[in-house]
Structure formats: structure tokens, C-alpha cells
């Protein structure tokens, strides 16, 4: 019995205020594991006293409002196998929604880190500014199993050799918009489980050898510069995939039937692409699917009736395609978890049967887009909606007056309502009832009388030709 503390986990402990550099914490010189994550140290610097822990193998200072330069003393902790300094940021309200990053790592300190911490298995520096580093230096970390460098302002070409380590399971370099790179040929021995390069300038092709990544569970290559062509059929061999997003590249053509093998998917996104042909009915076999997004494509045909089997579906985006045919609300009535449904800008005819709608069996929507769905009246199921935030019923053929119950739906939550470009008439109420409404569009109808008085929260009020 040595009497030494073998681990100290103070994560999520509501610690608040400046970090005490003279804390008795630094007397625990034999400490192998230290976690201070998810606290608020009020922009304190990471203390150079960190060198007092030469036995540390695990260090987690993530999401704790540390700021400034990461001290070179971190690179003296030569026994580290786990280092997490990610997400020390401040959320600020800007047009870009880009958080302010608090930590920065100098090139010389990064060189020392990769030269001295050769036993590192997990390195997470997301939201740390490491724009000045030479990316090739990362290849020295040959024992890495996880490398996460989200939004680090990385520049230049990502070293293809980093894909080679036999132990690498997680690689994420998302949201480094000036980072280029390409995928190498993979072999069957690769243990990769997570691969994310979203919103980078990765280019070239997704090689056919991807089919050898038998352990891959999450693949996100959205918003890159991959070569124009068909959706890679090799992806259909990745039967362990739970997350697949290849949106906003130049992939086109029909959705390949080889993807019918991906029945473990919970997230499936191929939006803003050049998909053609019908939506395959085999998607109804994806019983674990939570999020399906095929928006902004050139898909045709009807929405498969098999979608009613997707009992776990929460988000369905099919807007901005060339879909047609009758869509019966009864299909979605069976999907009790569905809370976002976007069918806007297609050639669909959305039909509801009032007699079969019962409040107890309805999904509760927060976002509902039925723009241009050939509606002739306000769907009666709307009267039971309590948590709507965004409702778009524009460009339909709804005629007559707005029913009284319509002014009572989701009073506390609705922030966006568009009923423009219909055939609505009669008078409107004196006051708009939604207390948090930000946008109201009434234009291109035949209302008469005075316009309603909006709530103070309103930012956009469209009422031309109404």
C-alpha cells in the first residue's frame, strides 16, 4: 500500500472562478489521472505547475474555460496516453455562430508535444488554435487510437500517413475549411470506426477500398470537394455504419441498391446533391433510423408507403425535390417520435382524413413544412399541436377564413408562421397571439380590414397584397 491518490475526477463539479496556482492539488505528485472537465475556471491559464504530475497518463481539461497559451510544461508529461484540451470556447451571438476559441498552441510547443508524448493514444484539441503547426509532425504519434482536431484552423494538406497507424480508430478533422487532403487506399486491417472530414477541402474520390473498412461506424464527408460521379456503391459493404453523411458534394444518379445493406443506420444524409430517380422502398427496413435527409436533390416519384415502418424516425427532410403523388398524413401519424417534417417545394398532394385523427395518437411537431403541398384547408391535426416552432403552409390553395382554433396552437413556442400565397379571406384578429413570434408572412391573400397588431418580439412582418 503506497497511500498515493491514483485518480482525481472533478469533472462537472460546478467549480467556478480563477484557478489557484498554489492549490494543494499540486502536492499529489504521484497522480496518474486528472479530470477537471466541464467546469468554469473563468479564463484562467492552464497552470505551468502541471509539470508537478510526472506520472500522469490521463489529463482532461476540456470545456472548462481555460484560455491563453497552452504551457510547454504539458509536453513534459511523457507518460500521457490521453490528452483532452478541447472545447474551451465562449458561445457568442454572431452571424456566423462561430464560438470564440480560448486556447492556442504555439508551433514550438506542438513540436515538443509530439516529440515527447510518444505514448499518446488519444489526442483531442478541438477548438484549439493550432493554425501555425506543421501537420506532418502529427505522424510521429504512432500509437494514436483517436485524433480529434475539430475547428482548429488547420491549414495545408493533411498528411496521408496519418491514416496508416494500425491502431487508429477515430479521426475527426471537421470544420477546418482551409484543410485539403485525400483518402488513401485502405486495407482490411484498418480498425477505423469513426472518420469525419466535414467542411474541409478534401478532394478526389472515395476509393473502392472503403469497402474494406469493416469496423467503420460513422462516416461524415459532407461539404467537401469529392469528385463528381455516382454515389459510391462500395459504401454498401460498410454494414456496421450507424452514421452516414455525404451531403453537399457532387454525387449524383440514383440511390444505389447496395446501400440497402446499411440497416444499422440511425443518421442517413445525402442532401444538396444531384440524386435522381425514386426514393427506394427498402428504406422502410431501416428500423433504427432517426434522421433522414434527402433535401435539395432531383428525386422523383412518390414517398414510399414503407416509411410508415420507421418507428424511430425523428427528422425527415425531403424538401426541394421533384417528388409527386398523394401523401396521406396517416403515414406520419404512425411515427410517434417524428418532430421535424419538411416536404416543401415538391409536387405533392398532402391529404388528411379528419375522421381518423385523434389527439392521443399524433406526433408533436416542432418544425413542419408543407409549402406547395396542394392543401385546400388547414390540416385539422394542427389544432392539437402544442410545441410548433416553425410552420410553413405557403403556396397552397387554402381558401376561406383562418379557423379560430388556428390562433390557439402552440402559443408559447411558435416563432415562424408562413401562410402567404393562398386564397385566404375574411378579417384577421386584432392581436397576433403568439408571444415569441419572430416572423409572420400573410402576403398574397385577400384578407380585408386592419392588419393584426404583432407582438413586440416580431422581426419580420410580410403583409403585401393581402
TrEMBL record:
Query: Does the keyword Metal-binding feature in the UniProt annotation?
Result: no
Superkingdom, taxonomy of origin: Eukaryota
Subcellular location as annotated: Cell membrane
Domain (Disease resistance R13L4/SHOC-2-like LRR): residue spans on this chain? 208-420
Q: Which UniProt keywords apply?
A: Cell membrane, Glycoprotein, Leucine-rich repeat, Membrane, Receptor, Repeat, Signal, Transmembrane, Transmembrane helix
Specify the protein's topology with respect to the membrane. Answer: Single-pass type I membrane protein
Record has Ribosomal protein as a keyword = no
Quote the cellular component terms of the Gene Ontology held in the record.
plasma membrane
Q: Which is one Pfam family of this protein?
A: LRR_1
UniProt similarity note? Belongs to the RLP family.
Q: What is the protein name given in its UniProt record?
A: Disease resistance R13L4/SHOC-2-like LRR domain-containing protein
Organism field: Prunus persica (Peach)
Amino acid at each position: 500500500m503506497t497511500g498515493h491518490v491514483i485518480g482525481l475526477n472533478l469533472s462537472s463539479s460546478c467549480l467556478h472562478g480563477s484557478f489557484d496556482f498554489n492549490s494543494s492539488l499540486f502536492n499529489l505528485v504521484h497522480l496518474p489521472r486528472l479530470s477537471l472537465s466541464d467546469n468554469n475556471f473563468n479564463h484562467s491559464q492552464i497552470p505551468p505547475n502541471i509539470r508537478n504530475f510526472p506520472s500522469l497518463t490521463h489529463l482532461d481539461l476540456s470545456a472548462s474555460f481555460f484560455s491563453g497559451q497552452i504551457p510547454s510544461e504539458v509536453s513534459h508529461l511523457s507518460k500521457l496516453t490521453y490528452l483532452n484540451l478541447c472545447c474551451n470556447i465562449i458561445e457568442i451571438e454572431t452571424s456566423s455562430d462561430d464560438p470564440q476559441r480560448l486556447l492556442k498552441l504555439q508551433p514550438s510547443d506542438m513540436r515538443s508535444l509530439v516529440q515527447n508524448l510518444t505514448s499518446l493514444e488519444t489526442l483531442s484539441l478541438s477548438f484549439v488554435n493550432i493554425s501555425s503547426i506543421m501537420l506532418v509532425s502529427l505522424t510521429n504519434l504512432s500509437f494514436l487510437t483517436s485524433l480529434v482536431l475539430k475547428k482548429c484552423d488547420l491549414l495545408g494538406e493533411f498528411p496521408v500517413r496519418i491514416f496508416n497507424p494500425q491502431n487508429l480508430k477515430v479521426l475527426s478533422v471537421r470544420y477546418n475549411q482551409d484543410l485539403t487532403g485525400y483518402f488513401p487506399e485502405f486495407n482490411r486491417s484498418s480498425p477505423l470506426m469513426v472518420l469525419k472530414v466535414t467542411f474541409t477541402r478534401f478532394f478526389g474520390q472515395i476509393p473502392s477500398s472503403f469497402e474494406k473498412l469493416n469496423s467503420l461506424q460513422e462516416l461524415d464527408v459532407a461539404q467537401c470537394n469529392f469528385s463528381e460521379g455516382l454515389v459510391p456503391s462500395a459504401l454498401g459493404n460498410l454494414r456496421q455504419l450507424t452514421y452516414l453523411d455525404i451531403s453537399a458534394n457532387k454525387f449524383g444518379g440514383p440511390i444505389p441498391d447496395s446501400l440497402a445493406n446499411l440497416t444499422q443506420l440511425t443518421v442517413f444524409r445525402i442532401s444538396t446533391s444531384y440524386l435522381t430517380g425514386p426514393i427506394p422502398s427498402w428504406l422502410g427496413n431501416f428500423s433504427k433510423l432517426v434522421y433522414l435527409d434527402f433535401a435539395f436533390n432531383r428525386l422523383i416519384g412518390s414517398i414510399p408507403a414503407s416509411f410508415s415502418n420507421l418507428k424511430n424516425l425523428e427528422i425527415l427532410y425531403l424538401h426541394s425535390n421533384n417528388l409527386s403523388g398523394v401523401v396521406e398524413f396517416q403515414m406520419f401519424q404512425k411515427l410517434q417520435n417524428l418532430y421535424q417534417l419538411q416536404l416543401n417545394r415538391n409536387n405533392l398532394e398532402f391529404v388528411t382524413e379528419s375522421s381518423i385523427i385523434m389527439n392521443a395518437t399524433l406526433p408533436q411537431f416542432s418544425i413542419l413544412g408543407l409549402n406547395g403541398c396542394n392543401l385546400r384547408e388547414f390540416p385539422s391535426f394542427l389544432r392539437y399541436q402544442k410545441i410548433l416552432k416553425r410552420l410553413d403552409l405557403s403556396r397552397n390553395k387554402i381558401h376561406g377564413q383562418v379557423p379560430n382554433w388556428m390562433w390557439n396552437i402552440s402559443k408559447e413556442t411558435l416563432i415562424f408562421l408562413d401562410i402567404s400565397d393562398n386564397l385566404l379571406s375574411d378579417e384577421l384578429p386584432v392581436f397576433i397571439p403568439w408571444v415569441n413570434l419572430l416572423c409572420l408572412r400573410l402576403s398574397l391573400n385577400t384578407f380585408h380590414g386592419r392588419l393584426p397588431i404583432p407582438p413586440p418580439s416580431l422581426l419580420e412582418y410580410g403583409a403585401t397584397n393581402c
